[in-house]
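Deliverable D5.2: sample structural annotation.
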Amino acid sequence: MKRGILFIGLLLLCSFVAYKQEGIASYYHNKFQGNRTASGERYHKDSLTAAHKTLPFGTFIKVTNLKNDSTVVLKVNDRIGTSKRIIDVSYAGATQLNFIRQGITKVKIETISTETESIEQTE
């Protein structure tokens, strides 16, 4: 019984710890405009969205360009394949992060919330 309570306590504690990761980011090419993402949504280059390997769809993440300290909040709605990059961002996201010309940059990502958490907080 005590073991079960301890496990539940640890599980709850871990759910409040923000996910952080650093690595290389790139952005979607315009040719993907209108294609369906892994979540079923259509990609729009003007939307603030991103693809990540493991974060759940609907998770909001703060992305910081470590080369110029620009930040943007994006919603995960797609998957990135077996690339060495940690994230692909929309064209709008790359514009706000100021790395369109370079094509790739080093970033830090931090989770903010999931879509369902955001909805629950507004109710």
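Annotation notes: DSSP finds three helices and six strands in the chain. Helices lie at 2-15, 91-97, 115-122.
The annotation will be released with the project's public dataset once the embargo ends.
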